[in-house]
Design brief:
- By secondary structure, this protein is an alpha+beta fold.
- It has a domain of 82 residues.
- The chain is 25% helix and 20% strand.
- It has five helices and five strands.
- The longest helix is centred in the N-terminal third of the chain and has 14 residues.
- It starts with 7 loop residues before the first strand and ends in a 21-residue tail after the last helix.
Length: 152
C-alpha cells in the first residue's frame, strides 16, 4: 500500500496520549497501563507499543467490504509522533458464492521452508590438547575424580 494514494482513507492523527481511551476501552496493555500511574508514563507505554506496529499492513473486513489497513505516523516537534490508520479498500466486489468447493493448496506448499543447518566438525578434547588453544598454550590434562578435598 503506497501512502498518500487517492483511494486511501486516512483517519484522524492522534498522539499517544489521545490513543489512551481506545487502549482502555479495548483492554490492550491493560496490565501495563494499570501499573503505570502518571499520564506521561501511560503515553510512553502506548507510544512504545504503537511504534512496533508502524508500517505493518493487515487485511480488514468491515460491513462486507475488504481492504488493507496500515498504521502510520507523522513526526512532530521534539520527536513527538501522531499516529493514524491508513485504509485502502479493495476495488473488486467479493466473489459470488457458488456450489463449488475452493481448492486448497497442498499441505507441502503451506509448510515454511527451513534452512539447512551447517554442521561443523569440532576437535575432541585430545585434539585440542595436542594443538593448543588460541594463545598457543596447551591445556592442562584433567585429573579424574575431582578435587582432593574431603567432604565429611
Amino acid at each position: 500500500m503506497k501512502p498518500n494514494t487517492p483511494t486511501a482513507q486516512v483517519a484522524t492523527k492522534l498522539s499517544a496520549t489521545e490513543w489512551l481511551k481506545y487502549f482502555e476501552r479495548s483492554a490492550v496493555l491493560a496490565k501495563e497501563l494499570a501499573e503505570t500511574q502518571s499520564a506521561l508514563g501511560k503515553a510512553i507505554k502506548i507510544g512504545q507499543f504503537l511504534s512496533t506496529c508502524v508500517d505493518r499492513e493487515v487485511c480488514i473486513q468491515v460491513g462486507g467490504k475488504t481492504g488493507r489497513a496500515c498504521l502510520r505516523f507523522e513526526a512532530g516537534r521534539a520527536n513527538a509522533k501522531r499516529y493514524y490508520v491508513e485504509v485502502v479498500w479493495d476495488d473488486t466486489a467479493p466473489p459470488e458464492p457458488t456450489g463449488r468447493v475452493a481448492k486448497t493448496p497442498s499441505s507441502d506448499a503451506a509448510k515454511p521452508r527451513r534452512k539447512k543447518s551447517k554442521t561443523v566438525e569440532r576437535p575432541n578434547s585430545e585434539e585440542q590438547n595436542a594443538a593448543g588453544n588460541a594463545n598457543g598454550k596447551k591445556a592442562k590434562p584433567r585429573q579424574p575424580g575431582g578435587n582432593t578435598e574431603a567432604w565429611t
